[in-house]
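A further point concerns the way the authors explain their paired sequence and structure data. The central task, working out the structure tokens from the amino acid sequence alone, is never made concrete. I therefore recommend that a typical entry be quoted early in the introduction. An entry of this sort, consisting of the sequence and the corresponding backbone structure tokens, reads as follows:
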Amino acid sequence: GENISEGIGGLNSNSESVITCINNSELSLNTKKAYYGVLCSLFRGYTLEGDEEAIKIYSSFVREFEEVKREIEVDKLKQEPTESEECLKNIDMAWLKRGLSHYKREFQKYGDDRFESPETQLKADAHLENYMVGMFHHDFLLRNELPTIRIRIQNGFEVCNWDKTNYIDIRGRNNKWLVINENKVRRAGDGNQRREKIGTELNWALNHWLKTKKHGDYLIEPLSTSGYTKKVKRIWKPKGIELTSGLIRKLYAIEVRKK
């Protein structure tokens, strides 16, 4: 115990040097990530014991681990399409959006008549949900956060810790914001909140969708990552392509690179 504590104190005083050494090395990003992962694991247990020195070390290594993860993600997006991504070669983001218009038109056929019976509401809402989910991925290049997103109405009661929650911030009928506090590359409380205004077309879908939702509800049914991936794949399947959130992000990166 005493030797370990001394080791922790020694590493804390040299943690910046360790970080500099790893970052300036010629190691691959994946190897750097592995090193920081080991260092994080080493000190995670001591943070639970309230060891202030260990907490400082752990926090600094976690920051570096997350930064390397982001760099790896960016590098993947910059790479040319692989064989499994061949479907992206003949489409672009405009095609992606056009592929959603069918769902919007089908929903509009129902209008407020969607509430005439549970059956018509189910059919109408299925079209609206496909359009809405697709637009979230088109407009915001989401990963798989959508099943974690909740509805927050201004001045609504506290149903959770909003600083650690992903949510739609509803300030008015035409004033809605997407707030992401935690995802694959973002940790709640690290000061790296993503907050973006929701555009006109997605706002239209949300105004209809929210008629059957209330403050604190999840925006869509909570799903596992694999379950949500299947849901996204079904959206563009009628067009002959099964897209995932990762492929949509890659498509956007390809388009930006061409410009």
About this structure: The chain has a mean pLDDT of 85. The first helix runs from residue 2 to 23. The longest strand covers residues 167-172.
